[in-house]
Amino acid sequence: MTKGTAIITGASSGIGAVYADRLARRGYGIVPVARDRGRLTALAERLSTEHGVTVTPLPADLTRDGDRERVLTMLRDDQGLSLLVNCAGIGPKAPLLGSERAGLDSMLHLNVDVLHSLTVTAAQAFASRQRGAIINIASVVALMPERFNATYCASKAFVLAFTQAISTELKPHGVQVQAVLPGFTRTGLFERAGVDIAAIPPEMIMEAGDMVDASLAGFDRGEIVTIPSLADIQLWSDLENARLELAPYLSLKQPAARYATGTGSR
């Protein structure tokens, strides 16, 4: 076992389960994390049989402090861990104005707070070992917040910005970081969110296996941000270059001339 061990949240189904399969194929030991003990056990049996790797299921509800602390302790203490894949997350059931605040708060807690605590713990542990990698699943809605539930879009924008920011800090320590921005992906997320997947044009929906395979190809290339559907990478480069060109103008002593008011005006 030369790859080390990958710990994958949200691994009992959907994107997380596909990551577990693909990484097991690559020779990683697998620690799948999810609430459903039965699904985790079945996944572990299949992966160990098909790929001959060690699979250690870790049943945990990451929204519960005690369960989350067990995962954080493993990230801190297990020297064999070399990869964290943050797939755990939930989507909205309605637009913001039609949602209950408690549901939005719960979504933010899992999509932002939990991911943040896991990523920070892994980043510090991996940096101290001078090796490792972190993959965070964001979403293309981070780039088009007008198109979807505002709270969900903001949670995924956090994942994107946070991952880009820590990549700079972790690079000198030999730790690789990637944010993955899927579009519509065929998983159980739609059903759980009460969305009729049949209402989405089929040409917009990617199979989970294709999405993960593309994302791992981007990971192999060292991409910090991977958008599996994007054929013309120059479009992303242009967006990033435009953002960076703003930098010299974002913090100056004087307000911009277009905001100037007349002397003495109120």
Task: Describe this protein's structure.
This protein has 266 residues and is α/β, with parallel strands linked by helices. It contains 8 helices and 9 strands. Helix 1 (14-25) packs parallel to helix 2, helix 3 runs parallel beside helix 4 (101-129) and helix 4 runs parallel beside helix 5. The longest helix is centred in the middle third of the chain and has 29 residues, at 101-129. It is globular, with a radius of gyration of 20 Å. The chain starts with a strand and ends in a 21-residue tail after the last helix. This is SDR family oxidoreductase. InterPro entries: NAD(P)-bd_dom_sf, Sc_DH/Rdtase_CS, SDR_fam.
What is the CATH third-level topology name? Rossmann fold
Order of helices and strands: EHEHEHEHEHEEHEHEH
Q: Any idea what the shape is?
A: globular
Strand content: 5-15%
Describe the sheet with the most strands. Answer: 7 strands, parallel
Number of strands: 9
Return the domain count.
1
Gyration radius, rounded:
20 Å
Amount of helix? 40-55%
Strand order of the biggest β-sheet = 3-2-1-4-5-6-9
Which superfamily, in CATH terms, is the homologous superfamily? NAD(P)-binding Rossmann-like Domain
Spans with pLDDT under 50 lasting ≥5 residues?
none
Q: What is the CATH C level class, in words?
A: Alpha Beta
End-to-end separation? 70 Å
Q: What's the CATH architecture?
A: 3-Layer(aba) Sandwich
- What would you call the structural class? alpha/beta
The helix tally amounts to 8
